[in-house]
C-alpha cells in the first residue's frame, strides 16, 4: 500500500504555467500568419483505490494532460497536440497544425466562435475543494462501504468491489480573440457493488454510488454500502411478466438517460445531419404544458457548472423546455453557422439541467401509477435517433394497486420518444443530483412491455 497522497492540493498552482503555454502557442500561431487559432490544455491528476471482499485490489495514481491547438487558414483547419509543454515542443505542435491547415478542404462554417460571445465576467463557481487524501484513506473508505454492505443482510454473499476516487483537473482555454482563462476543479466519488443469493441459488447484482465536488459532501461509506445491499436484495427472485401495455416509472438514474435522448435530438450536429426526430421543432410542444427544463450553468459547486463552454462562449441561464415547448437547440459555433442560427454556448455539453416536478415524491408516484412497472435498469442501444423509436431491455419492479409486488427482469420496454415525452404524467421532487441532469423519477402514461 502506497502512502502517496491524491495531489488535489497542488494542481491549482499550475494554472499560471498552463496559461503561459497556451499564450505561447497562440503567439506562435500568429507569427506563422494563421487566420486564427484556439488552444486548450487540460491536466488531470488523482488517486483511485479499488477493493474486493475487504482487500485492496488496485491502487492507481494518474497524472497526465496535453495541449491541443487548432489553426485556421482561410476556411481550412488543422489540429495538433503535445504533452510536452517546452517552448520548442509547443512550436513544433503549432507548426504541425498550421501545415495541416494548408492542405485540408475549405469549410466556410469552421472557425472560432464570434468574439462578441466570449465570456467577460468570470465568477468563482466553487468547483475546487482540495483534500490531501492518501491511498490508505481511500482504501479505508472503500472497505468501510464493503463492510456495511456485507453486514446488511445474510443474503449478501459477497462484494463485487468498491472504489474510492479523488481527482482534480486544471483547464485552460485561449484563442486569438484575446480570450484566455483557466480554472481548477475537484471530483470525489465512492461506489460499492453487492452480490446477493437466494437459497435456490438465484443471484443478483446491484450497486450504489456517491459523487461530489467536495469530499465532505459525499454520502458516508456506510450509507453507500447499505444502499447497495438493499438494492441487490430487492432484486432477488426476479421474474418475467406477461406482455402488456402499462404505465412505466423510470427511476431517477434511468430518467437522466431518457433526457439524454432529448439532448442528442436537439444537438446541432444531429440537426444539420438530419439525424434527429426533432427537426424544425423550435416552439413546438413536445412535452406536457406543465413540464419545464431550465439550464443553470452557474450553480455553485454543482457537477456541470461552467462560466464558458469549450469555445470560450459565455454560458447563461436558459430555458430548454418552456411550458412543454422546445425553446432552444444546443448549438456550437460550427453547427450554428451550418443551420443559420445563433450559437447557444453548448460546445462541450450541457450545464446543470433542472427538471420541473409535480410536487410528488418517488413513493407518491408509485402510488399514483397504480398498476405498472418501475424501471431501474435498461440495457442495449435500441434507440433510433431519426424516428425516435425506443426499444430496450429492462429490469425493475412490478407494481399493483400502488404497491411493489416483486422484481422483474428479462423484459423489453418499447415506445416512441415523441409519445413518451408527451406521455409524462409526473416527475418526482426528490431529485438525483449526481449528474448534469437533475431530476427525480419520471412517470410515463404507457409503454409496451414484452415479457412472457
Please outline the helices and strands:
Elements: H1 15-31, E1 36-52, E2 55-73, E3 76-82, H2 87-101, H3 135-150, E4 156-175, E5 180-197, E6 203-212, H4 221-235, E7 244-250, H5 252-266, H6 268-272, E8 293-295, E9 318-322, E10 325-326, H7 333-339, E11 353-355, H8 362-369, E12 372-379, E13 389-400, E14 403-416, H9 417-422, E15 424-427, E16 437-438, E17 442-450
Parallel strand pairs: 7-12, 11-16
Antiparallel strand pairs: 1-2, 1-4, 2-3, 4-5, 5-6, 7-17, 8-9, 8-11, 9-10, 12-13, 13-14, 14-17, 15-17
The radius of gyration is 24 Å
Structural class, from helix and strand content?
alpha+beta
Named CATH architecture of the largest domain: 2-Layer Sandwich
The fraction of residues assigned to DSSP E strands is: 35-45%
Poorly predicted regions are none
The whole-number mean of residue pLDDT values reads: 95
Strand order in space, largest sheet: 3-2-1-4-5-6
Compute the number of helices. 9
**Main beta sheet:** 6 strands, antiparallel
Our count of domains comes out at 2
Order of helices and strands: HEEEHHEEEHEHHEEEHEHEEEHEEE
Helix content: 10-25%
CATH uppermost class of the largest domain: Alpha Beta
State the shape.
Answer: globular
What's the CATH H-level superfamily name of the largest domain? PmbA/TldD superfamily
The CATH topology of the largest domain is given as PmbA/TldD fold
| End-to-end CA span | 51 Å
How many β-strand runs? 17
